[in-house]
Structure formats: C-alpha cells, structure tokens
Amino acid sequence: MVQDNRESIVAVRKNGDGDLTGFKTSSGRELAYAEALQLVQSGQIAGVNAFKGKDGETYIRGDADGDPTNNLDQLPLF
Q1: How far is 67 from 78, CA to CA, in rounded Å?
Q2: Which of 31, 32, 45, 77 lies deepest, with the highest CB count within 10 Å?
Q3: What span, in angstroms and rounded, lies between the C-alpha atoms of 3 and 12?
Q4: What are 10-62's pLDDT values in tens digits?
C-alpha cells in the first residue's frame, strides 16, 4: 500500500446556519472554504473530494467510505 502523506481534514468551522465555512488540517493549518476547495481540487488533501451541486456551485465533501463518523459534518468544531 502506498503511503499517503497528504493532509486530511480533522475539524471544521460552521456558520450560524450550520454550513461549513472553514477547515483545520492534520498539520494544524486553518483554511477558509475557498482555500480548502482549491487544495481539494488539486489533490492535496486526502479523504475529501469536490463536487458540483445542483445550484452550479462547487462544494467539498468527504469521500464515500460507508463510515458516517468521518463525514465532514461529524468532525469536531474548532
């Protein structure tokens, strides 16, 4: 198995509506949503992917692995 040295998302920040607005990575970096999205799209963050919503906007979501405990919404807040 290949060693994956990419960062992963370990905590999230949400706004008053519960929408994700920021992320903390495994190296301790705090990323705004737009910055995190760029890194996800360039393959620099493990365990997540970008998808285009019905509204045409691009969003970050966790990879579908059947484990609900690592869904972005379930991660601790920072």
Answers
A1: 22
A2: 45
A3: 25
A4: 999 999 999 999 999 999 999 999 999 999 999 999 999 999 999 999 999 99
